[in-house]
Design goal:
2 domains, 5 strands, alpha+beta, 29% helix
Length: 140
């Protein structure tokens, strides 16, 4: 039985086409992967209309796009107060979006008087964002 000889030109063509296919698949996979990851990032600009909101809302983000709550904490710290508790409750505004109320308690180090502030935060997606500004909270 004699062996079948495959010409080197055919082997080179098969190798070349295999390389082209592998590179093309890798390139398409990379482009699709980048697109899929970037698509999940939150929208930083523009306007959204959300059910349950009755007034305009502005979301404040830092240079990296992260919502910030540090202003009130820094101000309270300079007034000799410490952040003593953080309470998270489901909001009545939740509907299509999952909104929670975050309540911050600041206690004065000298008088033991506690002031509370709250903010509503949309936690529906991977990156939460502020729905309302930080404002005084009063128990009822």
């Amino acid at each position: 039985m004699s062996g079948v000889r495959i010409p080197w030109s055919l082997i080179r063509k098969i190798g070349l086409w295999t390389g082209v296919v592998v590179v093309t698949v890798a390139l398409v996979g990379t482009v699709l992967g980048v697109w899929a990851v970037r698509r999940s990032f939150p929208e930083h600009g523009g306007t959204l209309r959300l059910a349950g909101l009755t007034a305009p809302v502005t979301v404040h983000r830092d240079g990296h796009g992260i919502p910030q709550l540090y202003a009130q904490t820094a101000e309270a710290n300079s007034d000799n107060a410490s952040l003593t508790a953080v309470d998270v409750r489901p909001s009545r505004l939740s509907g299509v979006r999952k909104i929670v109320e975050v309540i911050f308690s600041y206690t004065n180090r000298q008088t033991d008087v506690t002031d509370k502030y709250f903010v509503r935060v949309d936690v529906t997606e991977e990156f939460p964002f502020l729905v309302t500004k930080l404002s005084p909270f009063y128990e009822h």
